[in-house]
Design goal:
alpha/beta, Rossmann fold, 5-stranded parallel β-sheet, 11 helices, 9 strands, globular
Length: 311
């Protein structure tokens, strides 16, 4: 792999290799008091976050440090961006300073792809940590890792993705990756929260959450992204919760083996009941834990792997 920009176009064998590497790294670190591997010693990883983040930013930093890379965080609020510097010039500056990999989160869809073109000559790898409403590939990979951990193979599994699909880069990345790995994806949302052209995606669509829950192996609740909404997408928070929130009563409709996921941050009481989020069926904490190992695996394949011409 040269970059990780999207799951759309990521081959099943590439995705499986990352997930298998994550499993191996997890086993290697199990029981260690000092979680430190020499794999990326001498490599420099720079993260540029133009949007707020807790889970993604922290787990990438931990992933790099656990592999002995030098990790540097660049915040837009304290960088030359505030002086008017462009994304291109910032990226070229980081590459010239010696960055082997740039991890970027940006509000503009396609920003990571543009970055990869600008940094092609420098040979700097780019990881998309979320670009606008486009994609968030490492989130989808950690979701897949968590589902494999709980369910085994994803082939033939039915996964419901529920809520604010239209604004969700997490949903888009999961649709492509889960389908590639053989799962069936069903989107459950009000019509106003489904993207245009949804019929062209490898999914089925439903507006009735209660009808879908008894037949799914996992349910992924999405965050309602109010900061991206301009206008009324649903009547009220209460109405949304009644129709599309995962309550305790709805959880009882799920099969006994079903897994509950949420990319976070959660709006407890609206998107998901606290009792459900904290139940044995919930793998929300496991998602965060697996995120570190998956991001370690991504950095390994980009900086210490065979250097192939992946996505």
């Amino acid at each position: 792999m040269r970059h990780l920009l999207a799951t759309d176009g990521l081959a099943a064998d590439e995705a499986t290799a990352i997930l298998d590497t994550a499993d191996e790294l997890k086993r290697t670190l199990l029981g260690r008091q000092v979680k430190k591997l020499p794999t990326l010693r001498g490599r420099t990883v720079v993260s540029m976050f133009y949007e707020n983040s807790t889970r993604t930013r922290v787990s990438f930093e931990i992933a790099g440090k656990w592999m002995s890379a030098d990790v540097i965080n660049v915040s837009a609020s304290s960088s030359s961006v505030n002086k008017g510097e462009s994304l291109r010039d910032t990226a070229l500056t980081l590459a010239a300073a010696g960055a082997d990999c740039v991890i970027v989160r940006h509000p503009a869809s396609g920003a990571a792809h543009r970055l990869s073109r600008w940094l092609a000559e420098a040979g700097t790898a780019v990881v998309n940590a979320g670009d606008g409403t486009h994609e968030h590939p490492t989130q989808a990979l950690l979701d897949a890792a968590t589902l494999r951990e709980r369910l085994g193979s994803l082939a033939g599994r039915r996964i419901a993705i529920v809520g604010d699909v239209v604004h969700s880069r997490v949903a888009r990345s999961n649709i492509h990756l889960l389908s590639t790995l053989g799962a069936e994806v069903v989107l459950v949302a009000p019509p106003t929260l489904l993207p245009a052209g949804v019929g062209g995606l490898p999914v089925t669509v439903s507006h009735d959450l209660d009808a879908e829950l008894p037949a799914v192996d996992a349910v992924m609740m999405l965050r309602v992204q109010a900061e991206r909404m301009h206008g009324g997408f649903f009547p009220s928070s209460r109405e949304y919760s009644i129709r599309y929130g995962l309550s305790e009563a709805r959880q009882r409709l799920l099969p006994a083996h079903a897994v509950v996921l949420h990319p976070g941050p959660m709006l407890r009481g609206m998107e998901i009941a606290s009792a459900v989020a904290d139940s044995p069926a919930s793998a929300i904490t496991a998602q965060v834990r697996n995120g570190v190992h998956v991001r370690m695996a991504v950095l390994y394949h980009l900086l210490a792997g065979d250097g192939g011409d992946g996505a």
